[in-house]
Amino acid sequence: MESELTQFFSVNKTQIQFSIPLEFQLETIYIRAIPKDILQCNFLKEINLFHGFGFTEEDIDNGSITFYFCFEEVIYLAQCYGPEHFLLNGIFWPKPIQPTFDDIYNGLKYTNASRISIIYPVYSFFRNEKYIVRSGLKYGVDFILYEKSPTVVHASYSVKIGNFLPNDIYQGLSKSQLGKPIKWRDVIGLLRLTEAISKDLLLVTPDLNDKFKIHCTCIQRCKI
Question: What are the residue boundaries of the tRNA intron endonuclease catalytic domain, all occurrences included (predicted)?
Answer without folding.
Answer: 119-211
